[in-house]
UniProtKB/TrEMBL annotation:
<keyword id="KW-0805">Transcription regulation</keyword>
<feature type="domain" description="4Fe-4S Wbl-type">
    <location>
        <begin position="22"/>
        <end position="86"/>
    </location>
</feature>
<dbReference type="InterPro" id="IPR003482">
    <property type="entry name" value="Whib"/>
</dbReference>
<keyword id="KW-0408">Iron</keyword>
<feature type="binding site">
    <location>
        <position position="23"/>
    </location>
    <ligand>
        <name>[4Fe-4S] cluster</name>
    </ligand>
</feature>
<dbReference type="InterPro" id="IPR034768">
    <property type="entry name" value="4FE4S_WBL"/>
</dbReference>
<keyword id="KW-0238">DNA-binding</keyword>
<dbReference type="GO" id="GO:0046872">
    <property type="term" value="F:metal ion binding"/>
</dbReference>
<keyword id="KW-0963">Cytoplasm</keyword>
<comment type="function">
    <text>Acts as a transcriptional regulator. Probably redox-responsive. The apo- but not holo-form probably binds DNA.</text>
</comment>
<dbReference type="GO" id="GO:0047134">
    <property type="term" value="F:protein-disulfide reductase [NAD(P)H] activity"/>
</dbReference>
<dbReference type="GO" id="GO:0003677">
    <property type="term" value="F:DNA binding"/>
</dbReference>
<keyword id="KW-0411">Iron-sulfur</keyword>
<comment type="similarity">
    <text>Belongs to the WhiB family.</text>
</comment>
<keyword id="KW-0004">4Fe-4S</keyword>
<keyword id="KW-0804">Transcription</keyword>
<dbReference type="GO" id="GO:0045892">
    <property type="term" value="P:negative regulation of DNA-templated transcription"/>
</dbReference>
């Protein structure tokens, strides 16, 4: 479960972007792994989700939300949970500061 203290609040404008999401009516099965899924099946599921994200008009807002709330599961904004964790790692932060 993610930390609800990081959620932006109940006001509609915080969530409005979700109404335009390409995944809006696709259901969670493409974006969240069943328990224990590994290997090629998991990779295929991730790639299918990323194809949806690639054409999504709110991809940036989705990814920003996932990073801000530290969403622990699923593909958000075109990145898997592992890819998002790598972005938030201390090593990545240090590299980003050096290149800025």
């Amino acid at each position: 479960m993610n930390d609800v203290s990081r959620l932006p609040g109940a006001a509609g404008h915080h969530w409005q972007w979700q109404l335009r999401a390409a995944c809006r009516n696709l259901g969670p099965g493409r974006f969240y792994h069943p328990a224990g899924e590994r290997g090629e099946e998991r990779d295929d599921r991730d790639e299918a989700a990323k194809r949806v994200c690639a054409v999504c008009p709110v991809r940036t807002a989705c990814l920003e939300h996932a990073l801000r709330t530290r969403e622990p599961f699923g593909v958000w904004g075109g990145l898997t949970e592992e890819e998002r964790r790598a972005l938030q790692s201390p090593a990545h932060a240090a590299t980003a500061r050096k290149s800025a």
